């Protein structure tokens, strides 16, 4: 059983906590329940107007799925599902059908590349316009496998990352490859190139 931050045990404190600082999660030592609490808070907070999330694999009795269905009763919820997830093709089609019946908008990934990105975006309405809260992870939205595999995830209110997350979802909705991010680096187009550049910089620094 992993650790859940104290402020994430009270859904009314979660967005204030994220406004103050980011949350870095190291699974399985940090519990996936932290992310479940984040989505639960988004589903129930009247200020939240939209929730978007990718799905590659998820557990059968997913609380994340349940909270997204709940959220669809009062706000816009849009999920992007990769139907070509190996060995989970049928499960993901069934997941899409269940979402649609609950009022969740579903978009299937398309194109030659599979949608491997694990990203969620919560949009909260404020007096100064929309405020974004992003979740980015190396692992699937799967509570079962998160207790076995080592992954890193971040939940952040950084608005530049939020703007990148917004652009990401807008791009894949239009079946385009996202690009020109402010903070994020996308694979396979740019990540390897950026990492090699960093390595070269370190080599030169040592010299």
Which keywords apply here?
35% helix, 23% strand, alpha/beta, 207 residues, single chain
Short description:
With 207 residues, the protein is of the alpha/beta class. Helices cover 35% and strands 23% of the residues.
Describe the structure.
35% of the residues lie in helices and 23% in strands. The chain is of the alpha/beta class and 207 residues long. The chain has a seven-stranded mixed sheet, sandwiched between helices. The longest helix is centred in the C-terminal third of the chain and has 16 residues, at 191-206.
Q: Mind summarizing the main beta sheet?
A: 7 strands, mixed
Q: Could you say which structural class the secondary elements and strand pairing correspond to?
A: alpha/beta
Oligomeric form of this entry? single chain
Overall radius of gyration: 17 Å
Q: What percent of the residues sit in helical stretches (DSSP H or I)?
A: 25-40%
Kindly report how far apart the N and C termini lie.
46 Å
The shape, in one word, is globular
Individual helix count:
6
Strand content: 15-25%
Which ranges are low-confidence, i.e. pLDDT below 50, for 5 or more consecutive residues? none
Q: Give the topology string: H per helix, E per strand.
A: HEHEHEHEEEEHH
Mean pLDDT, nearest integer? 94
Explain the layout of strands and helices.
Blueprint (H helix, E strand, L loop, with lengths): L13 H7 L2 E5 L5 H12 L3 E8 L7 H9 L4 E6 L7 H13 L3 E4 L9 E9 L2 E9 L13 E6 L2 H15 L17 H16 L1
Parallel strand pairs: 2-3, 3-4
Antiparallel strand pairs: 1-7, 2-5, 5-6, 6-7
